[in-house]
Amino acid sequence: MNYPLIDIGVNLMHRSFQQDREAVVANAAAGGVAPLIITGTSLRSSTEAARYAGRYPGGLYATAGVHPHDAKSCGAGTIGKLKELAALPQVVAVGECGLDYNRDYSPRDVQRKWFAAQVQLAQKLNMPLFLHEREASRDFAAILKEHSAVRAVVHCFTGTASELKTYLDLGLYIGITGWVCDERRGKHLQELVRTIPLDRLMLETDAPFLTPRDLKVKPAEGRNEPVYLQHILQAVARCIGRPAVEVAKAATDNARVFFGL
User: Fold this and answer.
1) What is the pLDDT of residue 94?
2) What residues contact residue 261 under an 8 Å CB cut-off, 6+ apart?
3) Nearest to 117, CA basis, from 57, 77, 90, 58
4) Residue numbers of the domain that contains 51
5) What pLDDT was estimated at residue 57?
6) Mind listing the pLDDT tens digit for each residue in 74-93?
């Protein structure tokens, strides 16, 4: 049985969806996954996401932000352009933004500068944040603590128990992806997800990435899709020992209120 779900993080403008983007959206809706929130990770992708979401009022939304990988591309006009995008009715959060010390595609001081700038923008606009963090928990939390009134969800959480506690203590929401379905890398997350209060939980696919490893029927070329959020829901429900309908309702209600859908 399918339950009404909101995919809070899908990279719908990725090139792997170029040929069948409309079909992917329709298939998700038919499977009970709607609306979808398209992730913006740069000025260009945020603009594309907002433009595409505008074609599906109430069915698609978007975020607008600069991922830490792309922080090095930011300049004097970046925040102003994000502010313009954020004014669009289909744009519901600032981000994906944050810190990534795992790959360091942008210098760390540059990452911190533009993460803080986007946090400040979200505060000024009274908008929520869609956040990314990899191996940068201390600096990440410190910047958020400086702006304690901000509303934020930690996208694709895969961290430690202590990191989870820190984020929950900061009042953050936690986004869980198909990582929880991975019997290798996701084993620790299967334990940790039990400690996330239902009123702080959200669900996402991060499609086309992080395809659940335990799907019985493997998707073509391994591409993840938002329709598989139903599979992720079932995995989370099993981990925490709660009925899937209860988990679905909580995650969906949280997303609607958080993003103002």
Assistant:
1) 98
2) 6, 35, 61, 92, 255
3) 77
4) 5-259
5) 97
6) 999 999 999 999 999 999 99
Give 98-155 as a DSSP string. EEETTT-SS-HHHHHHHHHHHHHHHHHHT--EEEEEES-HHHHHHHHHTTTT--EEET
Give the span between the Cα atoms of 229 and 28, in whole angstroms.
9
* Whole-prediction pTM: 0.96
How far is residue 72's CA from residue 166's CA, in Å, rounded to a whole number?
28
Measure the CA–CA gap between 49 and 40, rounded to whole angstroms: 6
* Total domains in the fold of the chain: 1
Give the DSSP H or E segment for 64: strand 60-64
Q: Torsion angle, CA of 231/128/200/102, rounded to 10 degrees?
A: 70
Q: What is the CATH number of the domain that holds 136?
A: 3.20.20.140
Question: Which residues in the chain show pLDDT less than 70?
Answer: none
